[in-house]
Amino acid sequence: MPPREAIVEALMRLAAEQPWNDIEIADIAREAGVSLAEFRDAYPSKGAVLGGFARMIDKQVLEGASDDLDEEPTRERLFDVLMRRLDAMDPYKPALRRIAFALRGDPLSLAALNQVALNSQRFMLASAGISTEGPLGRLKLQGVVIAFARVMEVWLEDEDPALARTMAALDREIRNGERFMERAEDVRRLTAPFRALAQSLAEGGRRRRRRDRRDDARDDRNEDEGNPLGGDPAAAI
């Protein structure tokens, strides 16, 4: 097993058995069978290993994608992708439960994990054929991150092998997201003329500022003409 993958697996084994804050990088290295030098070469911190875990799950989900649902509605494609993500995480559920509990009150860690989640969900949405470009795309992306975090809260406590509660929560979040994006698209269409006017005014202001700077530069050159010291009085010292 490559060192990076071994380190991820080691961290998840340890996290399933002991509190997150008790796990040291030396413990992870020892569990993974790598030296601290090899650990440092692979990851800069314990938290970065969680990013490696997210990328590992991304890869599993993306490699398991098929074109069977290409003709299905967007809702169905997204539901399938996110359920496959939960399936891929299932072996690590005890570890994820402990980690989620430990980081719940740590704003800095949550902000870092949000960025990791944004990177992951960008690929999940792409796999479902959903664009994440432009302002509305970024809104969709952050919305899916938040929605999936809510679903994960249900999933972590869902012991039913059929995951009925989890699937119901995911379906609900996707439908709520659809309604929100429909309203956002309506607002975007209604405000399009105002945004165009604002952009035009902003461009006019930028042109005026550039013209004023050119005029100032010409004035400065005129003041320097015939002055062997130039325009900086300090040059005479």
Automatic annotation (TrEMBL):
Domain named HTH tetR-type: residues: 1-61
PROSITE patterns in the cross-refs: HTH_TETR_2
Protein name: TetR family transcriptional regulator
Keyword field contains DNA-binding: yes
Keywords: DNA-binding
Residues of the DNA-binding region: 24-43
The species this protein was found in: Methylobacterium currus
GO molecular function: DNA binding
Segments for region (Disordered): 201-237
InterPro entries associated with the record: Homeodomain-like_sf, HTH_TetR
Residues spanning the signal sequence: none
Superkingdom assignment: Bacteria
